[in-house]
Amino acid sequence: MGFAEFADQATRLMPAGKLREAMALVPDEVVDRMTITGNVEQCARRIQAYAGVADELILARTGQRNDTGTMADYEDLLQLISTSAQ
Amino acid sequence: MKIGMMLGFEDSIKTMTNIARAAEGAGINALYTVDAGRSATITAAAVINATSRAQVGTYIVNAYAREPWMTGLEARDLNEISGGRFILGVGTGNLHFNDYYMGIDSRKAKAKMRDFMTIVRLVVSGRAAERVRYQGDVHRIRWRATWNPTTPSLPVYLSASGPNMVRLAGEVSDGVGIGIMSSVEFVRDVVRPNAQAGAVAAGRDPQALRFPTAATVSVNRDVEAARNASRAGYLQIISPDSPPLLRLAITTNGLC
After folding, report:
1. If phi over 0 gives left and psi between -120 and 50 gives alpha, with beta otherwise, what is residue B84?
2. What was the ipTM of the complex prediction?
3. How many whole angstroms separate alpha carbon B26 and alpha carbon B10?
């Protein structure tokens, strides 16, 4: 499915509250190129792709289904920061 | 790579400052707060008090919710509280939410943002007794600083995604605040050349422009869970109440 077709489907499904159906249609390329997603090692590699292009990468954390609402939720992100920060 | 972090969506300011401290310990370059569920400037003050080394900034304050004079004064104060660690990020906010929350039409933003940025940059760098004067189409200032600023100036970024605002950022800001969901190719091939052309047209050094870029990060040992969280986040972030905006966001950034 192309981006335009995905856009049409998503703009129909999201206002109707059909998040699960819309999620199944999100192209892998969107996740891979427009977000930093994966385990710590995969995220660290994605961050490095912005070297020389962005002067600073400002991370906004995406909530996870297994979040506990405690500082433990930030463990992986903090590890990613120590791995990537110079 | 310099790594920053966006704060402001946590359940309490206490949680926000705990995360800020932990991130500083992990080597973060800068911590940014946002005008969304909380005030960017007030929460920036809390983050400044919780940290000692990292830069602290707004990413961003909403220019449609504020006057440029007061925005400049708040930035001066935050720079003083932090001992010169402050960065001011300014933006138009979200077209849809400006209308929905405040009844403000922010469609024609370029003239306003030119004035807003010009005034804020004059105010943050104004020296004691120095006259600050500017007359724009939307905003003006007639003011004199009472004290010298903590640092001669401070970085003022303009967040931008569309081509007109990116070019304006090149003309009037210290850096282009690039939004989430921007691919490497979009930043490198579209945003940077456009902003640098704006700087050149305004007689400024294009190499001096900075390009701080926001990115959503979905990190999880369970990779498929991380991907699902990004899929859901992507669909929810790009304004579920506004199908035309959703379609625009997908088709413009998504193709890059």
Report:
1. left
2. 0.96
3. 19
pLDDT in tens, B165-209: 999 999 999 999 999 989 999 999 999 999 999 999 999 999 999
> What does the alpha-carbon distance between residue B230 and residue B236 come to, in Å, rounded to a whole number?
10
Of A26, A48, A60, the CB nearest to B216: A60
Nearest to B57 by CA among B81, B28, B34, B91: B34
DSSP state of B30: E
Partner-chain residue, chosen from A26, A54, A66, that has the shortest CB–CB distance to B225: A66
Q: Do A71 and B19 touch (CB under 8 A)?
A: yes
State the Cα–Cα distance between residues B94 and B246, nearest whole angstrom: 12
**Among A78, A58, A4, A37, which Cα is nearest to B234's?**
A37
The torsion angle over the Cα atoms of residues A78, A84, A86 and B5, rounded to 10 degrees, is -50
The verdict on whether omega for the bond into residue B60 sits within 30 degrees of 0, i.e. cis, is yes
**Minimal CA separation from B252 to chain A, in Å:** 9
Residue B70 CB: number of other CB atoms within 10 A?
A: 12
B243: chain A residues, CB-CB within 8 Å: 11-12, 14-15
Tell me the whole-structure pTM to 2 decimals. Answer: 0.94
Contact across the interface for A19 and B253, Cβ inside 8 Å:
no
Mutate to test the interface with B, among A8, A21, A34 (most CBs of B within 10 A): A34
Strands B140-144 and B131-135: antiparallel
Supply B54's token pair: 């990292």
SS (H, E, C) A17-75: CCHHHHHHHCCHHHHHHHCEEECHHHHHHHHHCCECCECEEEEEECCCCCCCCCHHHHH
